[in-house]
Specification:
- This protein is α/β, with parallel strands linked by helices.
- The protein has a single domain (4-142), classed as Rossmann fold (3-Layer(aba) Sandwich), CATH 3.40.50.
- The chain has five helices and eleven strands; from the N terminus they run E-H-E-E-E-E-H-E-H-E-H-E-E-E-E-H.
- The chain has helices at 15-28, 68-76, 94-107, 126-134, 183-189; strands spanning 4-9, 33-38, 48-50, 56-58, 60-62, 83-86, 111-116, 137-140, 153-157, 163-164, 177-181.
- The strands form three sheets. The chain has a six-stranded parallel beta sheet with strand order 5-2-6-7-1-8, with helices on both faces. A three-stranded antiparallel beta sheet has the order 10-9-11. The chain has a two-stranded antiparallel ribbon with strand order 3-4.
- Strand 9 and strand 10 form a beta hairpin.
- Helix 3 (94-107) runs parallel beside helix 4 (126-134).
- The radius of gyration is 17 Å and the shape is elongated.
- The mean pLDDT is 92.
- Bound molecules: zinc ion (ZN).
- It is found in: Cytoplasm.
Length: 197
């Protein structure tokens, strides 16, 4: 039975690596996969999913106004696919998550979405919130804080290493960087710990 999967993580957990490996496993067995990634993520160049350990694959890009059910139907006219992979799934709109759910239910093709759970202010991305609501299965791609605990949060830093507490959920083209932390160290970085601790 086809399912909608949400593989969620914080920044720099290696979710693109996990996605590319899973897609490779299908292709190694002569099954085609269809890869999608967000147009706002241009780190790897347009239409490419790349991981920090150096592997990558071609992908189609999605934009907020795209109907992904229609896009996938158009792709299927060129040949069958065994699974659909979506990177940067936090940038899906709620409507697009429903479109992917219809692909799973009506076309019976598994959709594996990979994305960030929360932004630098600890708030769910709309795409991730809808995936958390609709996914048949969820898996956490884990990484650790500098203290060794599981990292679930992320801070945004400017190019001087100062933690930014304000700003848009999606920052494009800046020099900011992201560090994944456990919740306690995220609170400390955001200035939310009592004096005594
Ligand atoms: Zn920590």
């Amino acid at each position: 039975m086809a399912k909608l999967y949400f593989n969620y993580s914080t920044m720099n957990a290696g979710k693109s690596t996990v996605l590319l490996q899973a897609s490779h496993n299908y292709r190694e067995n002569n099954m085609q996969t269809y890869l999608l990634t967000a147009s706002v993520d241009d780190r790897a160049g347009a239409g490419r999913i790349a991981s920090r350990i150096g592997i990558g694959a071609e992908a189609d890009v999605f934009r907020p106004e795209d109907d992904l059910h229609a896009r996938i139907c158009a792709r299927l006219e060129q040949g069958a696919v065994a699974a659909i992979f979506v990177d940067e799934a936090q940038f899906l709109t709620p409507d697009q998550v429903w479109q992917l759910a219809r692909v799973v239910d009506d076309l019976r093709i598994p959709v594996l979405a990979y994305g960030l759970r929360v932004d630098f202010q600890g708030k769910l991305f709309p795409g991730s919130a809808t995936l958390l609501a609709l996914a048949d299965e969820m898996r956490e791609v884990r990484t650790i804080c500098h203290c060794g605990k599981k990292a679930t949060m992320v801070v945004r830093q400017d190019d001087q290493g100062n933690v930014l507490t304000e700003g848009d959920q999606v920052q494009i083209g800046g020099n900011e960087s992201y560090v994944s932390l456990c919740r306690r160290h995220w609170r400390a970085a955001m200035g939310d710990l009592p004096e005594s601790s």
